Each structure stands twice: as C-alpha cells, then as structure tokens.
Amino acid sequence: MADAPWGDDPLAYLAEIGNRQISRFDPGLAALAFAARERPGLAFDSYLAHLDQLAFGAKRLLVGDDAEAHAEALRASIHKEFGYEGDSATYDDLQNADLVRVIDRRRGLPVALGILHLSVCYRLGWEMQGLAFPGHFLVSLNLGSDRLPIDPFGGGRSLSAADMRAILKRIQGEQAELTAACYQPVDDRDVLLRLQNNIKLRRLRIGDLPGALMTVEGMLALAPGVKELRHEIGMIHLRLENISEATRQLEIYLEQETNHGIRLKVATLLQELKLKLN
Q1: Do both 158 and 256 map to the same domain?
Q2: Low-confidence residues of the chain, pLDDT below 70?
Q3: Are 65 and 71 in contact (CB under 8 A)?
Q4: Residue 194's Cα: distance from chain center in Å?
Q5: Same structural domain, 86 and 166
C-alpha cells in the first residue's frame, strides 16, 4: 500500500496545494491530510486503500455510458456495497465532519459524503463538482452536456428540479424557489473549507480553542488568499491569551485588508493589544 502523500508533514502538503494554487487535486486525500494533523501516529494506508476500493467498485459496477449510469455506479459502490449513509440521528456530532471517523463509521455530513463522491470521481477521471446549493451540500455529475445533481446525504440519489425545489423549501420555507445560483459550481478547495468550517464551529461550540485553532491554520494553508482566516487565527489566539501571537497575526491581516471600516477596528484592537505587551 502507498504511503501517505503528505509524509510527516500534512500541513506542508496542504500548503503546497494552496501556494501552488493547484486547481485539480484529490479532495479525499486533502481531507485525510487535515485529519492526519491530529493523528501523527496513525497509519493511513488503510484509509488511502479504501478510497481506491470505492473507486474500483464504481468502475466495476458501471453499466452504461450516460450520466445516470455513472450515478448508479457511485450509489452501488459508496452507498450499497460499502454502506455509507447520512447521519441524521447525531447530525452535529464532530465525527460526521472528520473523514477518518466518517470512513470508520460509514456515516457523515452531506459535505463529508460529498467529498467521498468527489474523490472517487477524481480517481476515475469522471467530472464532478460541488454545487452552491444553500443549506444542504449537493454535487453535480457532469458527462458531456449532461449535468446531473446528486444528493450524497440521501443515498446518492439523482435529483430532478422538483426534488431540488422540495429540499430547498424544506430548508428555507415554502416561499423559496430554485434559481440559477443553486446550480453554480464550487471548486474542491471551497468544498474542503466548508467541511473544515463544520469542524471549527463544532470545536468552538464545545470550547476546544486549540482544536479550532489547528483547524483554521490548516484552512489557511489550503487557501492562503482567504484573509479572513488570518483574522480568525488572530482572534482565537486572543481568546487563548496568546497576546503576542494574536498581535502578529492581526498585523498580517491588517496589511491584507482593504475595507476602511474593518481596518480601523483592527487597528484599534492592535493598539490595545500592544499596550498589554508593554
């Protein structure tokens, strides 16, 4: 079995993707790299092999050449053969956003299950993208001119416009209607940030500030252009009473921020922090 591609430094692996602005990468590997930061002693060969098994299963079970046939192959491998399902019973459990525990338990959040679908398609050379659908993560399997929405949390079922409208109304109310924005693609980097944001929020909710800090540091490595992540890192350091590091991070953020009002607030905060350091 292949060694983990991040070696002993998963943060450097994520930073390489971020700094080189790699547009095509395996989101399943990247999600496991995030998990590896907290598990330096864990052998990841079985998890890497499992992603291969999911892809091999979909390839083996493919019957037909249209988009629905490909979607059925994904369902047959991921959901039927390997038993993945959405966790509605304990939806807010942190394990549902941690890909290692998702693989262990065969259940997770919509975005975590979506990343498994994206990883399988990446390995098979099938085109799939996340969608900017509000409140519930969906993916689109793209084959030629066909764009087939799929619900990873709902057993990988293919979705009609009526299905998507029903999901939207359940989330946003009966007044909600589908728009073109619901079908807009999002890149794999944004999908991973969405997954890690779920982890960050759950950690903040239980008061795990060091864990939240580790999560946001990984997010910034993957997406160094998202300056708001730098601000979050600074504010978490502040809550941890790491005043010197909070000051350093917020100074970097201030150099990147262009909004005058925000700059003024951050500059004022920095003045207060520097007084505490003196």
Answers
A1: no
A2: 1-2
A3: no
A4: 4
A5: yes
